[in-house]
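Following up on my earlier message about iron/sulfur cluster. Here are the inputs again, as you asked, copied directly from the submission form:
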Amino acid sequence: MNPAAGLLLHVCCGPCMTVVHEALSGEGFTVTGYFYNPNIHPWKERERRLTALSEYASDRGIPLDVDAGYPLEENLRMLLDAENRCSACFRDRLSATAARASQLGIPRFSTTLSVSPYQDQALIRLAGGAAGELHGVEFVYRDFTDLYRESIRLSREAGMYRQPYCGCVFSERDRYLGS
Ligand code: SF4
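Thanks, got it. Here's what our run produced:
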């Protein structure tokens, strides 16, 4: 392993991990996954996504660092107070990843959120850049949205659980009731 090529990859879920891990490893980065997603509600859903991801990572020998905390009240308060809920959510998750990379001595970080055409990529890029500056680590951004269909294919092939909504209770409501 080359520590200079290290990259901490914020992972939202197993399906998104498939292609992003493959692409970043293909670029020569030594990738460690990082699961920090207090925005996934409820707890059982978070566990289900984490289990699917852990199995995938373990099968492929991908190191995975998991934040065991679940600050639900804090997360709900943050989302309710935010002017733009998703922007606050990206800032929270990417800032935690940048801080963790700095703590582990990993010089850069990225996120699997970059594969979703349903997420605002401009906001992700902005949040990652600011988080990197704040914690003194480089944010590696790639727009992987063209790999989204491939991530569906690979995750289906692997028999992986695919979640029906983004994560927070608001996105779950919008998924079933419409926004
Ligand atoms: S919809 Fe998704 S990105 Fe937006 S606040 Fe909810 S969990 Fe976060």
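One observation from looking it over: The pocket of iron/sulfur cluster is lined by residues 39, 79, 85-86, 89, 166-168, 170-171 (CB under 6 Å). Hope that helps, and feel free to reply on this thread.
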